[in-house]
Design a protein that fits this description.
single chain, alpha+beta, elongated
Length: 135
């Protein structure tokens, strides 16, 4: 039995992946491009899980394991100067999954070249399949 999708006033469910660790070569400085460093990725995937939950059926939800694999591969195999660009490409990739309505992406760069003591540098973006965010 298929339920109707939530209306604009109903919140979507969320699948959250936090702290996906990826070694990559993003950054503006030469040593970042050659040596590389650790990045952490957080994803909040907005989707409707009711059909999957009703039928206990993986094919009716978002396969977070597959998305984690895809995001890890994307982040580790590309090279960008800005973590904003990394986040943008991650969001575009996640939004290609048909059951994903929106995604929040945070890229953490805990070893960023900052000349002060700090805990983390991160960029968070939100994208959806509405309003032309796929482009």
């Amino acid at each position: 039995m298929t339920k109707k999708p939530p209306t604009d006033s109903e919140p979507l469910d969320r699948i959250v992946i936090t702290g996906l660790e990826v070694f990559a070569h993003h950054g503006v400085l030469a040593h970042e491009k050659t040596t590389g460093q650790r990045f952490l990725v957080d994803l909040t995937i907005h989707t409707d899980t009711r059909d999957a939950a009703d039928g206990d059926d993986l094919t009716k939800t978002v396969d977070y394991g597959a998305i984690a694999d895809e995001v890890s591969e994307l982040v580790s195999s590309t090279r960008f100067d800005l973590i904003e660009t990394v986040a943008h490409h991650v969001a575009k990739a996640v939004l290609t999954h048909t059951r994903v309505s929106a995604v929040d992406v945070t890229i953490h760069k805990p070893e960023a070249p900052v000349d002060h003591s700090f805990g983390d540098v991160a960029v968070t973006i939100s994208r959806s399949n509405q309003h032309g965010d796929r482009d």
